Amino acid sequence: MKDNCTSIFGRGRRLAAAVLLACLAASGCDAIDPTEVNNPTTTDEDLAQATNPTAALLPGLRAQFARLINAYVVAEVVTDNYSIHGTGIIQTLDSPQEVTPDIMNSTGTSANGLYWNVQELRALADFVIEEIAPNDNTATPELVAEARYYRGMAYLTMGEAFSYVPHEADGTPQGADVALTRAVPDLQAATGFGPQANAALARAYR
Questions:
Q1: Residue 165 falls within a domain, yes or no?
Q2: Which of 119, 144, 185, 141 is CA-nearest to residue 57?
Q3: How many CA atoms lie within 13 A of 82 on its CB side?
Q4: Burial class of residue 190 (count of CB atoms within 10 Å of its CB; 0-12, 13-18, 19+)
Q5: How far apart are CA 125 and CA 46, in angstroms?
Q6: Residue 115 falls inside a structural domain
Q7: Are strands 174-175 and 164-165 parallel, antiparallel or unpaired?
Q8: pLDDT single digits (tens) 153-197
Q9: What is the pTM (predicted TM-score) of this model?
Q10: Which residue of 68, 166, 188, 199 lies most exposed, with the fewest beta carbons within 10 A?
């Protein structure tokens, strides 16, 4: 009798578990319905309406400028202006004939992607200077000067590193002299940011 009761209870527990799993499965389908997922996205309008948007975006410009400098050092290695020995940089860059576009024009945050990094810096600076700062009452002259410095450095780098390069998305490539000319007003406006702007301005005038 005891064995029968145990068997009945065992079957009952298994049946209850099966029913519970079926219910969970049925309700779970609604709970994980991908059509109900609302992934939030940050738009340009969201950034413009943020508290102190110019100040909030400056750290991103600083970080991108650091990536550009890193990429510029790699490019200087290719030209043999810098020695590659002891740097940890891939040996391929010490032999220019072995350098392929996928190395020097790589995208993302790659240290090698000078072209991508300089265009990213220019685009970010354009956004801050043209779209955000004019409508931001908290955008101090110091913040705007810093943003102008980064854009000026983007144009200066274009003029120093490329023979021709576009200055906007899908734009016509412009000569190096045009990039250097465009760097001048930004760097002049950035002199309040520090002496580094004057040093860069001298490079643009050469």
A1: yes
A2: 144
A3: 17
A4: buried
A5: 17
A6: yes
A7: antiparallel
A8: 999 999 988 888 899 988 999 999 999 999 999 999 999 999 999
A9: 0.69
A10: 199
